[in-house]
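Hi Q.,

Before the meeting this afternoon, I wanted you to have the pyridoxal-5'-phosphate prediction in hand. No need to reply - just skim if you have a minute. The sequence and ligand are here:
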Amino acid sequence: MSFDQTRWVWKNGQLLRWADATTHVSAHALHYGSGVFEGMRCYETPDGPAVFRLHAHLERLFNSASVYGLNIPYTVEQLATAVSDVIQRNEFTSCYVRPLCYFGSSSLGLHPAKCPVEVVILAWPWASYLGADGLKHGVRITVSPWRKFHSQMMPTTAKACGQYVNSILAVRDAFSRGFDEALLLDVEGNIAEGSGMNIFVIKGGTIFTNDEQHSILMGITRDSVIQIARELGYLVETKTLTVEDLTCADEAFFTGTAAEVTPIRELDGVSIGDGRRGPITAEIQDTYFSITAGRTDLHRDWLHFVAPEPVCR
Ligand SMILES: Cc1ncc(COP(=O)(O)O)c(C=O)c1O
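Predicted structure with the ligand bound:
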């Protein structure tokens, strides 16, 4: 994929052409990863493009920023409007949206006190992160030799740029060994999460996932899927997940804005369940996609319509 230079980017309150939305090589964030970001998806619906759980993502962005002392000089509502503006100006019907706030250029001491806070919002078309085939048939994953950092080392519930070098190491290793994705264990050797996605396992009809005690980012897709699964009548429990829980599971899947709901079919050569997308995973996936596509009235409040929603439908 290469980016279309004619697209529009929102930068510090202005819409600029992609090619003009630049930053200086002395920016603090470029050297030290001192920025925070979000990833959200805008889906095509019968009532126009809609961003899935926009306010939950913006809330997490502000929380991540406050952990790192980044004072975002905009309100949540200003950034919500900016997200809509970027999507509309680019005339996207569906896209991925990436708000990023970072310390810019002023000094390169580790304390970024004097560095300006820059805010940008990018958007581009992005197919499902683990591929259409992965969505349908499941992905093959491997336990990463890199552990997920503990929340006492870095705030795992914040989505900060520099924290992602851990994920980059894991995913590069997994790809180099022919797998689709990495599974990171926490420092105690229990399951944490994928490089950019949370994990669920299903055993005997009950759905299990882990939580922040296992150094995960608390995903918004994870939260959505927990609600969906309970509404479908499934018992969802939060617990410590071991590698054995995964290899002995009937079904397993990843959740994330980029990866959406992607079945896991194999861990290090061991088939999970029947080695394909399981029936409960399929049911949750179908419900998730019918919500994001606006094909149901269920959780319509999760959709933020880019243009005002029509009064009559
Ligand atoms: C490390 C990590 N875990 C989990 C997730 C899933 O979070 P969400 O569902 O909010 O996209 C992401 C994606 O943002 C992530 O980067």
